Amino acid sequence: MTAADDLAMRRALALAAEAASANEIPVGAVVLDADGRIVAEGRNHREATHDPTGHAEVDVLRRAAASVGSWNLEGHTLVVTLEPCIMCAGAILQARIGRVVFGAWDDKAGAAGSMYDVLRDRRLPYRAEVVGGVEADAATALLRAFFEQRR
Ligand SMILES: [Zn+2]
User: What burial class does residue 7 get, using C-beta atoms within 10 Å of its C-beta: 0-12 exposed, 13-18 middle, 19+ buried?
Assistant: First the structure.
């Protein structure tokens, strides 16, 4: 974990809170370049866009690729408030993201170490370094408040 990761996670948490305000499950994400600068921000927008792939990670990968001008995001870091699901882990590898920092563990659908470990599966041609549990309490609190309010 670097100082840039820490700042990025705080930004991702703010984006997650923004999602909650828009009645979306609160998950936020940012992509950092090799120097730790934020190149793109994203959040969950599945309800508003009626898009089953509208997770924060897919959103931020699309924006980062557009900003960089390439689908290949080698050397970049993706920072997200919740452990990526199988779909997002797949998208992260497709983008050649080399490093993933995430907040809360998702023991029901996580694919970065809890349920599956897609990002570090040695059978795949590309893998990513994973740092999990960063600011996990803050990410979990956002999710818990969101679902409690909906009950
Ligand atoms: Zn996902």
Answer: middle
Q: Residue 10 is encoded by which pair of tokens?
A: 């705080």
Question: Cα of 114 to ligand 1 centre, how many Å?
Answer: 14
3-state helix, strand, coil in the chain (%, to 5): 40, 20, 40
Residue 74 in this model has a pLDDT that exceeds 80: yes
Side by side, the strands of the sheet bearing 99-104 are: 38-43, 28-32, 77-82, 99-104, 129-131
Superfamily designation of domain 3-149: Cytidine Deaminase, domain 2 (3.40.140.10)
Angle at 44 between CA 140 and CA 111, to 5 degrees: 65
Contact 59, 25 (CB under 8 A): no
Q: Annotated binding site for Zn(2+), which residues?
A: 55, 85, 88
Q: What is the pTM of this model?
A: 0.97
